[in-house]
């Protein structure tokens, strides 16, 4: 109903707007008064015994796992692999001696993920579910649960669950890293960073008209679109493309920028929108090079950049945050671009054709 939507035309827009509050709630829930992450001690002890972390998920949650992979490796120095649950079940990789399994699932009901958890329990390996749904199947069947507390997510296209999954994984990585004495975890002011990120997210959702304008200008009638990014921006480009595909039916693909020259550039023709995400200073100049290459072939380029690597004519620029956590911010603009593209094309944003919020069949 309209009251539940709080005056919003669609749940998706409401849920995008809720992200700053969701970040703040996570900080309140999972940090103590000294600003240190506070998590179940048994969970941390079990994780500390592990020699490798296996993240299992589907869809948008899989993309949240891809963003978290370098966060776990840098902050907790635990080797981390991210797998599509649907592939892992049948194509199980060689496991390490002491694996720990992390299931990421907004709904906690995804059958593809559950079939892996059933096997993990048969094997007797420890597991954690990070979910937005207390008492869900994946939560009940895993050894441990961490709740996102993001409030119900109604729109089929996931937004606040994705960002809260990333933030909660970062909190977990820092807690584990501190336990292991990893300098990067001890020196990162994560609580303060997440507060800054909440403010930066707020400034982006306050400027949503900009994203509406960009969607109208570049995505109103196109049949396809490309997202490019390197380093931390690559995983975001995959999620940005998925969001656009799901609700606007624009055929979209996310690419690692360097791969353009290995194939994708053949698809670039006059007028094709290419959205570039640029936050990672290690690779920013290379992404700029890719932008020139696609522009030279007629692409319409939209840039989303972090201030320290931004240029004068970038379309969306946001203030600097810890680079590892920049996906939390850069993705918000892409969520809004997908939202407005769907809205402007006249679709039911919250209920895209052929898709379900939770898929309980394999
Ligand atoms: C469905 C939804 C997606 C979601 C995926 C995984 O396909 O349409 O939005 O990302 O399931 O869902 P989960 O609840 O496991 O995160």
From TrEMBL:
Give one GO term, molecular function aspect: glutamine-fructose-6-phosphate transaminase (isomerizing) activity
The primary location reported for this protein is cytoplasm
Q: Alphabetically list the UniProt keywords.
A: Aminotransferase, Cytoplasm, Glutamine amidotransferase, Repeat, Transferase
Give the Enzyme Commission number.
2.6.1.16
- Domain SIS: residue ranges: 43-182, 215-352
Localisation per UniProt entry: Cytoplasm
Q: Which residues form the active site?
A: 357
Q: Where are the annotated coiled coils located?
A: none
The record's catalysed reaction(s) read:
D-fructose 6-phosphate + L-glutamine = D-glucosamine 6-phosphate + L-glutamate
Report one GO cellular component.
Answer: cytosol
Q: Which domain of life is it from?
A: Bacteria
Any GO BP annotation = UDP-N-acetylglucosamine metabolic process
The subunit structure is:
Homodimer.
Functionally, this protein is described as follows:
Catalyzes the first step in hexosamine metabolism, converting fructose-6P into glucosamine-6P using glutamine as a nitrogen source.
Q: What is this protein called?
A: Glutamine--fructose-6-phosphate aminotransferase [isomerizing]
What is the source species?
Loigolactobacillus bifermentans DSM 20003
